[in-house]
Structure to design on (207 residues):
């Protein structure tokens, strides 16, 4: 991804996504001067892409509802002006949750200790573990969250443009894994938002 593209991950995380911008002027003698702090700037659509007060970066903050190809930001310095075009990609909702195995069975003959909450000493932990006994072990599955990143075309007509192409989705699991929940925690549980493990017979879903 180059510097004229921005993925609006803020929609998923609530954290601002930025791309730095630097404005320079080329003098008659060919010298280059950084005029960023003397520049005025304006986004042509703040609902898609915003620009900082100091004109030193463009950003999205998660309040946006759409993306756009060739989104323009105007910069002005004295009597000079320039336009920056950015491709702003936004995740298509709802996200697609995939599980490597949708049926988690008991592993025959495999039992694991039931570990109680931590105590102050090893002896008390060991005693508590023995008292609690063991439970059946269930299979595990990997959880992955995917989505397309899309943008309106510049003419705002027809089908949207796709980041990486229509046949490719982006793995956003690292961005959203701590927001994932198991509908019925008695049936299964989620470890670090990536691994689903069975706990008891039943049907549940990852949301």
């Amino acid at each position: 991804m180059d510097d004229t593209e921005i993925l609006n991950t803020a929609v998923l995380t609530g954290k601002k996504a930025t791309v730095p911008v630097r404005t320079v002027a080329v003098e008659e003698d060919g010298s280059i001067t950084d005029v960023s702090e003397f520049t005025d700037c304006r986004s042509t659509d703040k609902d898609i892409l915003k620009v900082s007060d100091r004109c030193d970066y463009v950003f999205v903050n998660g309040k946006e509802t759409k993306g756009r190809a060739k989104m323009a930001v105007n910069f002005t310095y004295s009597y000079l002006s320039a336009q920056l075009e950015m491709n702003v990609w936004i995740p298509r909702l709802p996200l697609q949750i995939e599980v490597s195995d949708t049926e988690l069975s008991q592993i025959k003959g495999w039992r694991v200790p039931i570990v109680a909450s931590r105590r102050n000493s090893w002896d008390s932990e060991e005693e508590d573990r023995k008292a609690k006994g063991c439970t059946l072990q269930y299979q595990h599955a990997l959880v992955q969250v995917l989505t397309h990143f899309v943008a309106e075309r510049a003419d705002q007509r027809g089908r949207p443009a796709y980041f990486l192409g229509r046949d490719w989705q982006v793995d956003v699991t690292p961005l959203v894994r701590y927001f994932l929940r198991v509908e019925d925690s008695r049936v299964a549980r989620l470890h670090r938002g990536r691994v689903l493990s069975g706990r008891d017979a039943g049907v549940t879903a990852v949301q």
Remarks:
- The chain has three helices and 18 strands.
- Confidence is low (pLDDT under 50) at residues 117-131.
- The helical segments are 10-13, 122-132, 173-176.
